[in-house]
Structure formats: structure tokens, C-alpha cells
Amino acid sequence: MKNAIGEFTKGIIKENPTFVLVLGLCPTLAVSVSVANGIGMGIAATFVLLGSSLIVSLIRDFIPDKVRIPCYIVIIATFVTIAELCMKAYSPLLDRALGIYVPLIVVNCIVLGRAEAFACKNNLANSFFDGLGMGVGFTLALILISAIREFLGAGQILGHTLIKGFEPVFVFSMPSGALLVIGLLLGFFNIIKNKKS
Amino acid sequence: MNIQEFLTIFISAVFIYNVILSRFLGLCSFIAISKETKPALAMSSAVMFVIVMSSAITWFVYRFLLVPFNLTYLRTISFILVIATFVQFVEMVVRKISPQLYRAFGIYLPLITVNCAVLGVAVLNIDMFFINGKAVAGSFYYSVFQGICVGLVYTLAMLLMSGIRERLEFCNVPEALKDFPLAFIIAAILSLSFMGFNGFKF
Amino acid sequence: MKNEFLVSGSPHIHKKESISRIMWAVVISLIPTGVAGVIIFGLDALWVTLVSIVAALLTEFTFQVLTKKKITIFDGSAVITGILLAFNLPSNVPLWLPAIGAIFSIAIGKQVFGGIGQNIFNPALVGRVFLMASWPKYMTTFVKPFNYDAVTSATPLAALREGKVLEHISYLDLFLGKRGGCIGEVCILALLIGAAFLFVRGYISWHIPVTYIFTTAVFVYIFGGNKLFNGDWLFHILNGGLVLGAFFMATDYVATPLTVKGQLIFGLGCGLLTAVIRIWGGYPEGVSYAILMMNGATPFIDRYTKSRIYGTK
Q1: Which residue from B158, B147, B17, B133 is spatially nearest to B86, judged by alpha carbons?
Q2: A170 vs chain C: nearest CA distance in angstroms?
Q3: What are the residues facing C90 on neighbouring strands?
Q4: How far apart (Å, rounded) are the C-alpha atoms in residues C28 and B73?
């Protein structure tokens, strides 16, 4: 059990997929305009991660090595399609906000990366916690970035204005603002990492 | 099918919703491989080839397989399978025909399967050129053309970025910002300067 | 006289001059424009400029202290960035705007690349486009010239964009700066005096500014009017930030190509992009964006125009 907890927590800080592994940035930057979008994407991606990690781990002994990547892709794509359809049915607003980035979860390096690097070599329990941890880490990263962007770029968080009379810095709602935020955050985390060692 | 539409596609992909600096498609590989010009160029050509071909193939799959049989919800699965298979196929062929070519850019091919740009453009094509499941007149040509534009934009961006980053090798960048953070900041500045083309109207 | 040598690709020392000397010369060359700006727009222009300079100096100082590098704030380069940024702003902006802009210019436009001599992009312009994207309302509200009561008016370029012709304004008026606009861009006379000073001292060469302005003029002449070959090229040269940009920002030693051929390409590119944005783009002015884009292309241009070293391939 201790091992499993370790697998879970590593996805949050030590091997955070966004800030440490620097994976899956395309959708991260694109949807992080508002915290609501960030959470939505995070949940969808976590669902796909969990599902695919579990299945891959389950059938890992039955997949021939040569065709493993296409197999993983089919498994992941299935879960993405489920997520897509659920989103279209139950929260069409979110679906429209996230746009093409929902189907793009299929090629999100985090998902395929975890299947390839972990789930195919580990048992069900560990794979479950690894997938969950990575998903949560990803979602937290999304929340951090979109909180910064939404606050600075629109003066709000989750649609609520925090400080009256705050002049929003529009650039943060724009793509260049996203790139700026991730660049500075990565630099900031590097400083912390260097200080520690 | 009209010329105006082609122009709009081009301007949109390059200037207004720049595929990399605005839609962020292909960003991971863009940041990772743009450190030197040679690999950047190799990756770009491979990406361009895959994008154009898969734009065409996925169009056919959607038009003649998914739509008639009401299987449009299988779009994501079928498209990514098409792309993965195509890339695998190309890799095999290149390996057999020319080991030199393979060494030059065959190694990037597997990476392209997960390049958001490829699947992204395929999905964009459908969203933009199919209305309620019916293909807009000339949508095949629009789709392929959009693929070409995206490939070109990707190449241009890679070249610019690799030139800049190669030059920065001679500069004493602050330690914490080396590589990725600075690459993102450069992309941010490039994105800001491309904003000059907002509201473009011919 | 202390000589400072930088290990970087830019030979921005042509003769045995120290960087400081060149930088401060540029500062001096900008004084006529500053004076003109204050005369035309009032003391607001002075405060904006001062705030920008001070913010730039403080940012550079802080950065250099934090990264334990040598303190070089007196070499004049941060001062220039502060001045140029201010000259690209309307005079009636709230004072926190140039402050934040200057901080951004120095921190993101210069220091993250390693400091002086290593920036890819012109720092002042990096700050300007950041401000433009962040607070477009403040950046596009201009006051009437010689009207110290802050009555706003559109710039002639913006008016042209909307198809209106701003009350009859002569070329002489434009040349002297009797129009709304950014602090340092309106008085062409003052700008040319400063540029002449730099030419005479040999600190800038004619290649980039002349190619830039010429290309813009030609393109605008051909495509900028109601019919072909009908564009008002003189109007375009005397308006907007073209002269300021061509002589003082497109000539940044560090962010532009090394060879003459490269510089001509640079000037051509800037001219083309400026004209295209002015004619078909959404903004009435394209100088900052054009120069920044060409800055980005400079490493590339350098690669393919570097003169061959004798004896090698």
C-alpha cells in the first residue's frame, strides 16, 4: 500500500507531467484561459489516463511487443471517445470551450507516455495509482496556469471578480500570455530545484 | 470551390490563428526539437509530409466510411489509427529504400504519430469543411491545402526558432532559464509580434 | 577609456569605442526628440519618459544583483530602452503603464537572454507590444497636440484607416509634429537631427533606415491608394512610428544582421511587413511588429549572408 501511495504522490510534484516531465503542453496552454476550462480538461484527461492505464496493465501480458503502440492507441482512443461523447451530452458548453483539444487527448504525450513507460510493466494497483497521480498532477498544473491567466487576464477566477477596479492585463488571455506564463513558471520551478540541490 | 477560401485558409493558418503560436498544435515537438537547425529541418519535412498525406486519407475515411455508415463518433479512433498506420508504413518503406534517408529523419517518424498537429489538422478539416456531415464543395482540396499550409507554418517556425536558439548558445542565459523556459519566452515574444497581423483583411 | 569586450556574435564595436560611449551618444541624439515631445504634448511626456527610464534602471539593477552579475546600469543601454519605450507611448498614459512596460522590456526583452549584447529582440519594442496587447485602450488613446488639457483625438494614420481625413493637415505640419501620436514619433525634424548626429559620428549606417523607409514608401505607393500606383507615400513616411523605428530601433546593433547584405534584407523585410500591416492589417501602425519579426529572423539571415572565411568552404 505504501508503494501505491508513492506512485500516486510522485505524479503531483516530483514527476509532475507538466512542469517536470514537460509533456502534453499543447492542450495545457490552449485551454488554460479560464480555471473552469482547466478543471474540465483535467477531469477528462484523468478519466482517460485512469481507464487506459488500468486496461493496459490488465492485458499487458497478452499484447505482443511489436504491435503494442497501436494497441495502446486504440485503448486510449476508446476512452477518449467515451469522454468526448459524455462531454457532448452532459456539458456541451465545456465541449465547445475545449473544442478540438478533447479528441487531442489521444495524442497527449502524458497518456501514451504513462502507458508505455509504466502501465505495461506494472501491476493493476500501481498502474491505477500512477494514472491517478499523473492525472491529478496534470489537473493541478492546469489549475495553477489557468488561475494565473484568468486572474491577470480577466481579473476573475471561475468567473468571479476578485479585486474591484483591477485593470486586467489582456495579454494573459492570449496565446502569448500562455507561453509567457509557462516559460516563467518553468524557470521559477528550476530556481527552486537548483536551490534545493 | 473558390479562390477566396484558399486565401482565407492560408492567412488564417499563418497569421491569424497561427498553428503553433496561437493554436499550439505541434508545440511539444516544436520546443523540443528546435534547438538545432538540422534536426529541425528534418523534423519539419517529415511532419509536413505526414500532415498532407493524412489530411487526404482521413478525408476519404470520413467522407466514404464514417459518414455513410453513421459512424462519425468513431472519428477520433479511426483517424488516429489511420495516422499511426500510415506513419508505421512510411517508416518501413523509408527504412527499406534508403537507410540514409532513414537515418536523417526516419527516427522522427514515430514521434509524429503523437504530434498534435497531425491529428489536430485532420479534426480541424472536418470541423471546418463538413457541415452536418455533408462535405462542402471542394472540401477535399481545402483540407489538403490546409495541411500544406500548416506544414509550411511549422517549418517556418522551426527554422526561425532554431536560428534563434543556436545563436543563444553563445550567450550567458541565466541558469534557471536555459532550454525550455527561454524557448517558451521566445515563442511568447514571437507570438506577440505575430499579433501585428490581427484583423487581416484582403 | 575603458574598453569592454563581449563574447557574443555581435561586433557592435566598430572602432575602439566603449559601449558606454555609443549608448550615451544615442541618448544625446534622442534629446531633440524628447524636447519636441514635451513642447508638443506637455509635461506629461516628460513624466512618462522619466518613469520609464527609472523603472528600466531599477529592473536592470535588481536583475543583476539577483543573478550576481556586474552592475552595468550606467552604460546607458537601459536608459536608451527606457527612453525608446516612452517615445512609443501616448503622452496621456497612466504612469504605471510605462513603469510596467519598462520592467517587462528589461527583464523579458533583455536580461533573460543574458543581458547587453545578447538580446535577440529590441527590448523597447518587446515592452511596447506587451503593453499594446495588455492594455490596448490606453495605448491607442492620443491627445491633441499643443492641447495640454488632454482632449483626445485620433492619429492621422488611424483616421486614414477609417476612411476619414483628419482636418486639413499639411506635410509641413506632419514634418514638425503638429499631430496626435506617440511622444517620440511625431516630430520628424527632431528625429532627423538626432539621426544625423549618429550618422556623423559613425554610430549608425544608412543601410537599414534608408532601405526600410524606401521599401515602405514604394510598397505604399503601389498598393496603398484607392487604385494602383496612387498611394500617398509621403504621408506614410511622415506618419506613425516609421522614422523613429527606422533610425533608432531597427538600427539596434545587437538585434540586427552583421553583414551589409543582411542589413539590406533586414530593411527590406521591415519595410514590406510595415507596409502590409498598414494597408491590410487590423492595426493602423505596423512598425513595432515588423521590426520584432525581422529581429526574430536575424539569426537566420546572418547564417546565410555571413561572408565566407577565406580558405574554407
Answers
A1: B147
A2: 4
A3: C182
A4: 67
Q: Do A100 and B124 touch (CB under 8 A)?
A: yes
The answer to whether B34 and B125 are in contact (CB under 8 A) is: no
Chain B residue with minimum CA distance to A72 = B81
Residue C239 cell numbers, joined:
506618419
Residues of B in contact with A180 (CB under 8 A): 184-185, 188
Note whether C133 and C289 are within 8 A (CB).
no
Residue-wise pLDDT for B10-58, tens only, equals 888 888 888 888 888 888 888 888 888 888 888 888 889 999 999 999 9
Distances (CA, A) of C183 to B178, C81, C110, C220, C288: 36, 14, 23, 24, 15
Neighbours of A105 (CB within 10 A): 25
Q: For residues C284-303, b (16+ Cβ closer than 10 Å) or e, as one string?
A: bbbbbbbbbbbbbbbbbbbb
Interface-testing mutation among B114, B126, B153, B168, with chain A (most A C-beta atoms within 10 A): B114
What does the block give as the cell for C37? 515631445
Q: What is the distance between the alpha carbons of residues A148 and A156, in angstroms, rounded to a whole number?
A: 10
Say if C136 is an interface residue toward chain A (CB within 8 Å): yes
Domain boundaries defined on chain C: 19-305
Contact A130, A114 (CB under 8 A): yes
Cα separation of C243 and C191, whole Å? 7
Write out chain B residues lying below 8 Å of C241, CB-based: none
3-class DSSP state for residue C178? coil
State the sign of the Cα–Cα–Cα–Cα dihedral C175, C177, C181, C185: positive
Give yes or no for a contact between B141 and B19, defined as CB atoms under 8 angstroms apart.
no
Mean pLDDT of all residues in B82-98: 85
The nearest CA of chain B is from the CA of C215 a distance in Å of 18
Ranges of chain C whose pLDDT falls below 70: 1-17, 147-151, 162-168, 307-313
Q: Which of C134, C135, C137, C289 to mutate to test the interface with A (most CBs of A within 10 A)?
A: C134
The alpha helices in C156-204, defined as continuous H runs, are 156-161, 171-176, 188-201
Residues of B in contact with C303 (CB under 8 A): 37, 163
- Domain spanning C19-305, CATH class: mainly alpha
Record the pTM: 0.89
pLDDT digits (tens, 9 = 90+) for B95-149: 888 888 777 776 777 778 888 889 999 998 888 888 877 777 788 888 999 999 9
CA B193, CA B199: separation in Å to the nearest integer? 14
**Cβ(C24)–Cβ(C76) below 8 Å:** yes
CB C123 within 8 A of CB C21: no
Q: Say yes or no to pLDDT of A38 above 70.
A: yes
Cβ distance A171 to C136 less than 8 Å, yes or no, reads: no
